[in-house]
Amino acid sequence: MAQETLTDIVNNFRPSLDPYETLYKHIHRHPELSLQEENTASTCADHLNNLPGFSVHSNIGGHGLAAVLENGSGKTVLLRADIDALPVEEQTGLPYASRVRMKDDDGVEKPVMHACGHDMHLTSMLAAAELLHKAREKWKGTIILLFQPNEERGAGDGSLLRISPLMTDALSTGAKAMIADGLYDKIPVPDIVLGQHLQPLRAGVIGTRRGLVASAADGLRITLYGRGGHGAMPHRTIDPVVIAAHVVVRLQTIVAREVDPNDSSVVTVACVQAGMTENIIADYAVLKLNVRNINAKTRDKVLAAIRRMVNAECQASGADKEPLIEPTSHFPFTNNDEAITKELEKTFGEHFGDQYDLNAPRLGGSEDFPILATARDRPYCFWTVGCIDPDKWDEAEKKGTLLEDIPVNHSPFFAPVIQPTMKAGVDALAVAALTFLK
Fold first, then answer.
1. Distances (CA, A) of 30 to 111, 125, 147, 265, 266
2. Closest CA to 287 of 258, 333, 328, 339
3. Measured distance CA(270)–CA(250) in Å, rounded
4. I need a labelling partner for 95 at 20 to 30 A (CA). Which of 63, 115, 168, 381 fits?
5. How far apart are the C-alpha atoms of 278 and 297, rounded to whole Å?
6. Cα 159 versus chain centre, distance
C-alpha cells in the first residue's frame, strides 16, 4: 500500500470552502483600518473558539490574536496572517465591494478597503485551521495561528501608548507591538515561523524564494516650516509649498544619481499637505515618504541623503525654522531561511506541481513578519500566492500588457479572484505546517 502523502492528507481533510468564500466576502465588505480591527479580530476568535482544543489569546498588541492547538510532542509551528485594511476608496465594482468609511488616527474620515489581500490571508488561515484540526491524527506537535493587526502602517507617532502605557517604542509595528505586549509569555515560542502574501500574479501559483524576499522600508513624515500670509503678498512670507515642491523634485535625484544602477531603491513622496484655501499662504507643509531598499548600506545612504536635501532646500529658501523629520514606520529586510525554504520547495513542488515557482520574484512591498521569528532567533519562510484571474492574466500576458492591465496591491482596482486563490492559500498553509509536523 502506498504511503500517505501530504497531498493525500490535505485533499482528504480540506473542508468545504463555500462558507469561507461567504466569510471572505463579508470581511472584504467590512474592512477596518490599522489599530481598529476589533470586529475582524472578533470574527476570527469566534471561528477558532468553535474548534475544540484551540486556546485563543486575544488583544495582544492591540487587536492581535493567537490561537494554539497542542497535539502531542513535536515541533511548534507558527502560521501568520495580517488583518488590517487600507485608506483606499474601492473602485473594483464587485458586488461585495467596501463602502466603509472610518476615522484615522488624525481624526480624518477616510474610505477603507482591503486592497492588499489581508482578507484572503485571514480567511485562508481560518480554513486551514479547520483542515489541520480535522487531521489531528495525521500530525504531532503544536500549531500557532497568529492574526496580526496593524501590518500596513506600523504604530508610529506614539499610537502604541493607546494600546499599553508600557509600549513607548515609536517605531513598533504590528508584529513588534505583539512581541512587546508579551506574545511569547502567553503562547509557546515557535520553532519555525511561516507566512504568505497575495501578489498580483496568476491565481493559484505559489512562489518561494531563498534569501531576500522583501525589501526593508522606512516611513517618514517631514514638516517644512514657512511663514504664512496673504496670497497677494508673497514677498512678506516664506512659502512652504514652494519649499515642498523643490524637495519633492530634489528627492527624485537620490535614486537616479546616488544609487548604483545595479542596486535597487525607491523614494516615494506619496502625500503632500499644505494650506486651507487659495488666498492664504500656509505656515507649513507636510510630506509623507515611503523609502525601500534591498541593501543595508544603501538604506543608510538614502536616508542620510533625504535629510541632507531637505535641510538644504529649507536653508536655500530662508526658512526661519529647521524642518522636522519624524520616522513613522520601520520594516526589516525579509530574508527566508535557506534550510526551511529548501524543505518547502520539496513539499510545495510535490503538491502544486507546475503551479509552483521556486524562484519567485521578490515582493514589491515590505513586511514586519520577520520580527515574529527574529525576536526569538527562529528561522522563517514567507511565500507568495497569485491572485489574478487566470483568464485576465493570460490575456494580458499574450498582449504584453501585464504592467498596464493588472492592478497591483494598494490599487483601488485590486480584486483577487476568490478561486483558485483561496484553495491555493489554504493548501499552502496546510502543506507548509505539515512539512514540519511529523
1. 11, 18, 17, 35, 32
2. 328
3. 15
4. 63
5. 43
6. 18
Residues involved in catalysis = 84, 151
Alpha-carbon span 86 to 116, nearest angstrom:
8
The answer to whether 323 and 310 have CB atoms below 8 angstroms apart is yes
Question: Are 213 and 363 in contact, with CB atoms under 8 Å apart?
Answer: yes
- The sign of the dihedral angle between the CA atoms of 386, 388, 390, 396 is negative
Per-residue pLDDT tens listing for the chain (438 residues): 578 999 999 999 999 999 999 999 999 999 999 999 999 999 999 999 999 999 999 999 999 999 999 999 999 999 999 999 999 999 999 999 999 999 988 899 999 999 999 999 999 999 999 999 999 999 999 999 999 999 997 544 333 333 333 334 444 679 999 999 999 999 999 999 999 999 999 999 999 999 999 999 999 999 999 999 999 999 999 999 999 999 999 999 999 999 999 999 999 999 999 999 999 999 999 999 999 999 999 999 999 999 999 999 999 999 999 999 999 989 999 999 999 999 999 999 999 999 999 999 999 789 999 999 999 999 999 999 999 999 999 999 999 999 999 999 999 999 999 999 999 999 999 999 999 998
**Euclidean distance between CA atoms 252 and 343, whole angstroms:** 42
Residue type, 415: A
Cell of 89: 476608496
Peptide bond into 420 cis (omega under 30): yes
pTM assigned to the model: 0.91
What's the CA gap between 329 and 220, in Å, rounded?
7
Alpha helices in 200-239 (DSSP H): none
